[in-house]
Automatic annotation (TrEMBL):
Ranges where the Glycosyl transferase family domain occurs: 189-337
Glycosyltransferase subfamily 4-like N-terminal domain ranges (all copies): 15-183
Protein name: Glycosyl transferase family 1
Pfam family, one: Glyco_transf_4
GO molecular function: glycosyltransferase activity
Taxonomy, superkingdom: Bacteria
Length: 363
């Protein structure tokens, strides 16, 4: 039987999206129904281009594209033509575009291939970013609204709130949640014997992750230690003496063990899609303190798996509550249970593959 050719197109191959694609490649690359192609840009600073072929499942065929993150008319025209040429060369049965830039250029390119089903996953809509002007945010929203209205490409949301937004732009989008490979997560965590609590996060020290607020919160809590697993361009904002940084890891398997040192996972992002690092922390049995934004609030059941915070006072209340070891254990247990029920990528990505097959069979 002929395998279904699936082409994934991605510009934003970094951070959580890199983890997403690593897991997706291992699930779909092992699916004997599929022949998987991943067309990507390797220009994000947080990845090592030489590691991509090592990290992704070897059955997946990799295609390098010259795409850039920011709006650049000349580069974007070239990117559109590259995507169009890639689709023509691979001749896939299904195309799936990921993140905003590939989503816009891809939905333009796929118009030349009218019989090919296509999908788009935002992984956090660009208009939710807080590091751009209101004018640019409105422009991004208008783009998404109009492309959803006039394109045949269907949206697949990666999280519940993203799904609710997608429903405002088009009829009958799909929801297939992000997930992780649970078999890579430790079943038991060795808790620190230190008298000081260790809280921490994992990710790039970037505007999205709001290191200024992290520094503010941690400076209010000199009795705890904070570990930032990662590095980034805004590391200079982390000045509180009880904050330590590990430095950046391009190998995810070397970063994850550092989470075993934590008692509490904290993430005060300004915006998110559906954060992979938080899913991983919850899978390890860590309670979470998180900013009350899209993505974070999809994962955290306030008062059950952790706390959603809007200000300093909320943070201090959450931290003081989680100083109780019994509460930390109960919330961590609930967090692990939620991840195992909803964010198992082996199950979720099989649903994604089934959706591709259904789309082709209904042509």
């Amino acid at each position: 039987m002929e395998k279904l050719k699936v082409l994934h197109v991605i510009e934003a191959l970094g951070g959580g999206v890199y983890s997403y694609f690593t897991d997706l490649s291992h699930v779909m690359g092992a699916d004997n129904r599929l022949e998987v192609f991943i067309a990507y840009s390797n220009k994000r600073k947080e990845i090592n281009p030489d590691d991509v072929s090592k990290d992704f499942q070897p059955n997946c065929k990799l295609i390098l594209l010259d795409l850039v993150k920011e709006i650049n008319p000349l580069k974007d025209l070239q990117g559109y033509l590259e995507i169009k040429k890639c689709i023509k060369r691979v001749r896939p049965h299904v195309v799936h575009f990921h993140s905003s830039k590939a989503g816009i250029l891809g939905r333009l390119a796929i118009r030349s291939f009218k019989s090919t089903p296509s999908f788009y996953t935002p992984h956090g809509y660009a208009f939710l970013r807080k590091d751009v002007s209101d004018k640019k945010s409105k422009f991004f929203r208008a783009l998404e609204k109009n492309f959803a209205k006039f394109s045949k490409t269907k949206t697949i949301a990666c999280g519940d709130t993203e799904f609710e937004i997608a429903k405002k732009f088009e009829e009958s989008p799909y929801l297939i949640r992000n997930g992780i490979r649970l078999e890579l997560m430790p079943e038991k965590i060795e808790r620190t014997n230190s008298k000081r609590l260790i809280v921490g996060t994992l990710g790039r020290i970037s505007p999205q992750k709001n290191p200024k607020l992290i520094n503010q919160y941690i400076s209010l809590s000199p009795e705890i230690d904070f570990l930032w697993i990662g590095d980034g361009e805004l590391s200079g904002l982390l000045t509180s003496p009880n904050i330590k940084k590990t430095g950046w890891f391009t190998d995810r398997t070397k970063a994850l063990p550092h989470m075993l040192k934590l008692d509490i996972f904290i993430q005060v992002s300004l915006w998110e899609g559906l954060p992979i690092a938080m899913i991983e922390a919850m899978a390890m049995g860590l309670p979470v303190i998180a900013s009350n934004v899209i993505g974070n609030k999809d994962l955290v059941d306030h008062g059950k798996t952790g706390f959603l915070v809007d200000n300093d006072n909320d943070y201090l209340i959450a931290l003081n509550t989680l100083k109780d070891q019994k509460i930390r254990f109960e919330m961590g247990k609930a967090a692990k249970k939620k991840v195992r029920e909803l964010y198992n990528c082996n199950k979720n990505f099989k649903q994604l593959a089934d959706l591709y097959i259904d789309a082709v069979s209904n042509i």
